[in-house]
Amino acid sequence: MPMENYNIIIIGAGMAGLCAAVEAVSNNVRVLILEKENEIGGSSLLSGRYMAFANTDLQMQEGIQDSTEMLVNDLLTVGDGANERSLVEAYGQHQLETYQWLIEKGVQFHAVQAVSGHSVPRGHQITPKQAIQTLFDLANSNSNVTFLLNADVKRLRKNNEGKVTEVFYVKDGKEFNAIAEDGVIIASGGFSKSETLLNAFAPQLKGALRIGGKGNVGDGIKLAWEQGAWMRDFPFLKGTYGFHPSADGPRKSQGLVFYKGAIIINAEAKRFVNESISYKLIGTKALEQSDGITYQIWDQAIMKESVPGDALYDFDKLLDLGLIEQANSLSELAQKIDVPEKALLETIQTYNSDVSKGVDQQFGRSTLTHNFGNPTTISEGPFYGMRTTVAMLATYAGIAVDEQARVLNPYNEPIEGLYAAGELVGGFHGAGYMTGSSLGKAAIFGRIAVRTAIQNINTESLFVKG
Ligand SMILES: Cc1cc2nc3c(=O)[nH]c(=O)nc-3n(C[C@H](O)[C@H](O)[C@H](O)COP(=O)(O)OP(=O)(O)OC[C@H]3O[C@@H](n4cnc5c(N)ncnc54)[C@H](O)[C@@H]3O)c2cc1C
Hints:
The chain is α/β, with parallel strands linked by helices. It has helices spanning 15-26, 42-46, 57-61, 68-78, 85-105, 128-140, 195-201, 219-226, 279-287, 300-303, 315-320, 330-337, 341-357, 437-453, and strands spanning 4-11, 31-34, 50-52, 109-113, 123-126, 145-148, 151-158, 164-171, 174-186, 209-210, 231-232, 240-243, 263-266, 294-299, 325-327, 383-392, 398-400, 406-408, 414-420, 425-426. It folds into two domains: 4-237 and 396-461, FAD/NAD(P)-binding domain (3-Layer(bba) Sandwich), CATH 3.50.50; 240-392, Flavocytochrome C3, Chain A, domain 1. The protein has 14 helices and 20 strands. The protein is elongated and about 75 Å long.
């Protein structure tokens, strides 16, 4: 087969790759999209559904006052200042425009929820299948696009001028190559399914479940590495707390009852953490408990906060699936979940007394999540307990890029022709993760990568489209 030429080649068809593809077709450039698996979507399809945007119509309808500045500040606070500020500011600059662009392209947002790391409710809920399919259909129906499934990218190569232009991939057992005249965009997701990379970079997460897109084994990180890319944020790899141990990805198994007021205890029935902090930080503490065993414990008043159909807060559904124990008394619950009864009663009594006084003397909990909401006592039967563990869902560490999504070498110089967007980018989140910012960053930087790559051929369309 003769080698084909495109303006842009996109590796991976998740949120980042598909937003890049739609942005590219809106600018009338020829695009090749290569997806390794036999279906599109990657981890984006499995995701918990939240995208972090500020100052939106949905927030206004709910009377939520928010601003880009607050969003940027929250990202920097949660990242403990270790984030690359220019990337966070680029997110701020393009977030509202990208939210509106997604709506214009047909992506539906249903509701706003309070989620981890935000000072106001800012988790904008999508239905991942609807979003991914809509973006795919838009891109794929354009005659400038060639879309290949089962196309596994193996290697990139620079031309004689040192620009990354050539992409080698394997499809149906045969090797192919194609040329990208204006840019190669790596959007192939993280490495939450790579035992080798997780063991190398995050041995502390050995006890965590592995959940994520099948193809998310870090190929893009290796592709960029080979071209001289610098890497960022590997020391900050963390799991996410809130999964039932039976979790495998597609099946509903996540419940963040602690952000609605549940406490978290270990096998000795003792609290060990402030439950309002990031679920990543809770995850680190949870893995340190005896045998990694922990439970969320709550009462009927908190159960009433269940949100039907929500990815994180549909506790009734988890009860129906048999993943939650229910009991008429705390003593009965202790027996059902096999923790010491006396210790559980003492833990609840101390917590309730502290909540009533307004001071959590043990761990300083004063909110439900981040700065939002007020803790309540656990006192109204029936009572509930869910065995809960940590999952490695998304890696959020990897390729260094600048605010134009250009891949950087160790001296902060762009590697010509090479761009990256989505989960495999490092430097954005810093030391902590704020819910919704991964899908958000995938969409925002997927679009930015295309706009940067094509600026030499189509300058008038840059950064002005809605
Ligand atoms: C259970 C779960 C819940 C989550 N909840 C949220 C949430 O609520 N909010 C949020 O912001 N984030 C959430 N995340 C994280 C978020 O979903 C991901 O970080 C994000 O979707 C990544 O998007 P992406 O486009 O970078 O990668 P992906 O969506 O993973 O897409 C990458 C694609 O590249 C393909 N690929 C890989 N290697 C190659 C190769 N060599 N050649 C060709 N193609 C390749 C993969 O097969 C895949 O289809 C969650 C993740 C999981 C697993």
